[in-house]
Specification:
By secondary structure, the protein is of the alpha/beta class.
Length: 985
């Protein structure tokens, strides 16, 4: 080493370093760190090699052995950065041997702390080494050993603990456990906020990991934000090498987003840098990605060359999982050029690696890829007498794999992340549906729809997660997080540490979202034992991929005990590319059937409906359009829309069965569970006979059903509460005053000045005359625009017992694109200091569906679930804009379904934004003596007093339909009355 180099290192040490060994050793350590920060890894290795030679020439002693271990540990970190995995493994093993050899040597308190720090750093380097070479169990063993040692270590700022947590995040990502990885990373970041950002590399690495998780699960804007923040942190650290490496991460996001031209440019820039720096692992990952992109654009020659180069580098490095990914990419290319045997060989070899490393969701993705190639082959060639066997083979691969990848969403803490994941995982389920159609297997289609419609089970435990999770990506290849993330520290990062990640932070992360668990088994017999839907495929998935697909509970696909007094048909719909339908008769009628509607026809019809409805947030402009120019403005245009919906969504065969049953046994009941795509459809309006104006409502009563998984098991405490406090109380919440909002503001009055509406005054007076009313009032006008009806008041009256709840007021639906139906809110009289799970709006905190479900469980150790705080009465009416919007979500856990979960047997809610009577008067010029909204409220109130509320409400809707046909007046338009639907489980 030259005198000039020693002088540079000495200056660095004096500026901020700690004297450890004395000069010139401390200056040399600092110099090596400078080289590493500048991205000159060869120079850093040269410094350490020279120091190691010097240390090995000194007379042996425990201190000298510690020095050698320190040098080897640092050298291992640099070699890992340079993807010299063999050299890193040699350094790790030698460092560990030296450290173990002096473990029992006499050492003072500071010496013990230095030894513990070096052991922790060596274990962290070992974990990273094992991760990169696919030895995930050995990586986990390193982390577990480090966790055992950590409490002995004096770590006031928690830096080493954060590094261990970071490595756990990356190990979870390597296993494909995206949900737990995201939870841990999200929980860890706030705990690092008090440390000096310029001294902590864990923060940008965590941000990078979160960026890759978000990108791999379809949340691209979040991914780019995380990466931008990571790059700022690296800039503050002066880490030029990592700043340049961010090119590759940005390229992964661009590729996942579908911006392939941008991705290719960024990957090319990153490849040039990695090649210059001899970062062979990162270069191999970029080559793999470029091979994938070349294949996408049809350049199979370049794709093959890049795949070969990537595989060769990964194999030389011993990176078995990354090499397996490249083999799988090669399998795709082999299939594209017609080399089936090579495709099978490469795919099976890759799968064997995944199986050996217990990365089971990667195995599922291989099987799904093979099933996809089988389907493609079926489309290209005539299999003749062997076609059924080929379809069976494809199904045996596709369906268990699809079930596994779908079930991976239960690991995520938020509904938004789960919804984004499903967009990626649904391709496998769509393949399974296509294969079932190809096999003309009506029974399998029926079971697929039943399983898909069962929904997810709400989990109130703080952190219910399966042991494994699937890996994401629209395609299998490539995956950035599996290949390019480097979790190891700088060779001489700060040495002060603190306690590990606390339970409070972990629980806070777990409770940030509404967790769900796998659904119950769906028994295909309504009574007694019987076959479970998809039972052999579920068993195969759970055995092959070690993931729970269903929970231990078993429920019939339909409970018909209380439905035998009249004919009933249960209709369920499922989105799987096309729209699939099943129906089953009961109550004196027998039969079942399946149907399928092509995706383009469904999308066209649903799009026409969406254009006809006032969109949330449009305000008066949207409502004026709905009154004046939308298809709902006149009877003729509305009938055309109703016919278009029927042609796209409703099978003629089912209409014929309904007619036959009606002629023999009277008007049947249709229980329909819509899929999210068609949840806004007013089924009652469907014009089911061409050339006539006969609607489904003319032939049957219609009720909406929610997923069976929402049926909450009643606890002994619930039964005790209900039996101890039988009540005839009707709870009225009529246009409550929202704090901080004037009557004419967006959250202002819905019903107008108290006492101004004679119909509603008569409604309240009738209840005062016949039953107990909450709130306690002397005159009907006192029930309106109250200021005391907050969540605590509501809890008090519901806990005392009630038979009905009638809410009329503001409802704010959650955006469907956000995926979180639990963000839907009621606007009561709650002030900003009210305890809750939703952020205040000015001087008001709304009551969310998440509040109704979780209660105070996330807020304190002795918290109660929402079903205990707000137990729902048997019948609930939520009359507000889009109060039934939760059915438009993959996980319907919004306001209406929260009431069902909390004990309601029936909830009446609305499918879209409602026009107020004020809107009718001022936008549609309806006379002020006509109050359509008030009439609707009274009709719902009468229905909820009737023994059969569904039939009662349907009778009123039929009256409105008759007026609409005969008069065509705006106040009778389905814009208002068709929005209402009764929801049951």
């Amino acid at each position: 080493m030259s005198n000039e180099e020693i002088s540079q290192g000495e200056q660095a040490t004096t500026a901020g370093g700690t004297q450890l060994y004395g000069e010139p050793l401390d200056s040399a350590f600092a110099l090596a760190e400078e080289h590493q920060l500048a991205g000159d890894l060869s120079a850093a290795c040269a410094v350490y090699d020279e120091l190691l030679t010097f240390a090995e020439s000194i007379e042996d002693s425990p201190d000298v052995r510690f020095l050698r271990a320190h040098l080897l540990s640092n050298l291992a970190s640099v070699r890992l950065t340079a993807t010299d995995l063999a050299g890193a493994e040699d350094a790790v093993e030698r460092a560990r041997t030296l450290l173990d050899g002096i473990a029992s040597a006499p050492m003072g308190p500071r010496g013990r702390q230095l030894w513990l720090e070096m052991l922790l750093r060596t274990l962290i380097a070992g974990c990273d080494l094992f991760r990169r070479t696919g030895r995930l169990d050995e990586a986990l063993a390193c982390l577990d050993e480090a966790a055992v040692r950590l409490p002995e270590f004096d770590d006031p700022e928690g830096l080493r603990a954060s590094e261990l947590a970071l490595n756990r995040v990356l190990l979870l990502m390597d296993r494909g456990e995206w949900g737990p990885a995201e939870d841990l990373a999200t929980a860890l970041l706030p705990t690092l906020g008090t440390t000096d950002a310029t001294q902590l590399e864990t923060v940008p690495r965590l941000l990078t990991a979160l960026g890759m998780i978000c990108s791999s699960t379809g949340r691209f804007d979040e991914a780019e934000d995380h990466l931008a923040r990571a790059e700022e942190r690296y800039r503050a650290l002066g880490d030029i090498g990592e700043q340049r490496s961010m090119l590759a991460y940005r390229a992964w996001v661009a590729m996942d987003r579908g911006e392939h031209a941008l991705a290719e440019r960024l990957f090319a820039e990153a490849s040039a840098y990695f090649e210059q720096q001899q970062l062979h692992g990162d270069l191999a990952a970029c080559e793999q990605a470029r091979a994938y992109l070349a294949g996408r654009r049809g350049d199979m020659t370049s794709a093959g060359d890049l795949t070969t180069a990537s595989l060769s580098r990964f194999e030389q490095l011993g990176a078995s999982l990354a090499a397996a990914d490249t083999m799988l990419l090669g399998a795709q290319h082999a299939y594209a050029r017609g080399d089936i045997e090579e495709m099978k060989r490469l795919a099976q070899t890759a799968r064997d690696v995944y199986q050996e490393r217990e990365v089971y969701e990667r195995c599922a993705q291989v099987d799904l890829m093979l099933a996809t190639t089988l389907e493609d082959n079926l489309n290209r060639t005539d299999h003749g007498a062997h076609e059924r066997r080929s379809i069976d083979n494809a199904l045996s691969l596709a369906l268990p794999a699809a079930l596994t990848l779908q079930a991976a969403r239960y690991d995520f803490a938020t509904a938004r992340a789960r919804a984004q994941w499903l967009q990626l995982a649904d391709e496998g389920m769509e393949l399974a549906f296509r294969l079932a159609v190809r096999r003309q297997d009506q029974g399998l289609l029926f079971e697929l729809v039943e399983h898909r419609s069962a929904g997810a089970t709400l989990s109130l435990a703080p952190d219910p997660r399966p042991s494994t999770t699937a890996e994401a990506g629209t395609s299998l290849f490539p995956n950035a997080a599996m290949k390019a993330e480097r979790a190891y520290e700088r060779a001489d990062a700060p040495t002060t540490l603190g306690p590990g990640l606390g339970g409070v932070a972990a629980e806070a992360a777990a409770s940030a979202g509404l967790r769900v668990a796998p659904p119950p088994k769906v028994r295909m017999a309504a009574q007694g034992p019987g076959r479970v839907a998809l039972q052999e495929y579920i068993a195969a998935a759970e055995f092959r991929y070690r993931r729970r697909i269903v929970n231990d509970d078993e429920i019939p696909f339909w409970i018909t005990d209380d439905l035998t007094s009249r004919p009933v048909v249960q209709v369920r719909l499922a989105d799987a590319g096309d729209l699939f339908m099943t129906w089953t008769w009961a109550g004196g009628a027998k039969g079942f059937g399946t149907g399928r509607a092509p995706a383009d026809e469904v999308d066209r019809a649903v799009g026409e409906l969406a254009e006809a409805l006032p969109a949330s947030g449009e305000g008066a402009t949207g409502m004026r359009r709905a009154f004046e120019t939308s298809p709902l403005a006149t009877h003729d245009t509305e009938r055309n829309l109703a016919r278009s919906l029927a042609e796209a969504l409703w099978p003629e065969g089912l209409t014929a069965q309904i007619r036959q049953v009606s002629a023999r046994a009277g008007r049947p009941l249709i229980r329909i569970q819509p899929s999210p795509r068609v949840a806004q459809v007013p089924w009652e309006l469907l014009a089911v006979q061409d050339g006539t104006d006969i609607r489904l409502l003319d032939l049957a009563d219609v009720v909406t059903t929610a997923p069976t998984s929402l049926r909450r098991q009643t606890t002994p405490e619930d039964e005790e509460d209900r039996s101890a406090s039988p009540s005839e109380t009707v709870v009225l919440v009529l246009d409550p005053r929202v704090p901080g909002f004037r009557a004419d503001s967006p959250l202002g009055s819905v019903l107008g000045p108290p006492g101004s509406d004679p119909e509603l005054l008569a409604l309240v007076q009738n209840h005062l005359d016949t039953t107990t009313v909450a709130p306690s009032i002397a005159t009907p006008a006192e029930a309106f625009r109250r200021t005391d009806q907050d969540r605590d008041w509501l809890s008090e009256v519901l806990r005392k017992g009630a038979r009905r709840l009638l809410y009329v007021g503001h409802v704010s639906g959650a955006p469907v694109t956000g995926g979180q139906s639990e963000d839907g809110t009621l606007h009561l009289c709650c002030g900003p200091n009210t305890t809750g799970l939703t952020d205040p709006i000015r001087t008001h905190r709304p009551l969310s569906a998440k509040d109704l479900l979780l209660g105070t469980l996330p807020l304190r150790p002795d918290g109660e679930p929402g079903s205990r705080i707000w137990p729902a009465p048997p019948r609930v009416a939520l009359i507000g804009c889009e109060s039934a919007a939760d059915l438009r979500f993959t996980e319907p856990l919004g306001l209406a379904t929260a009431m069902l979960h909390n004990g309601a047997a029936l909830v009446t809610a609305t499918r879209w934004t409602l026009p107020t009577s004020f809107a009718y008067h001022h936008l549609a010029k309806v006379p002020e003596s006509v109050r359509p909204l008030s009439e609707a409220i009274c009709a719902i109130d009468r229905a909820h007093e009737h023994p059969d509320p569904v039939s009662s409400l349907a009778d009123w809707q039929r009256e409105q339909l008759d007026h609409w046909r005969s008069e065509g007046r705006t106040e009778h338009s389905p814009l208002l009355w068709a929005a209402m639907t009764c929801i049951v489980v």
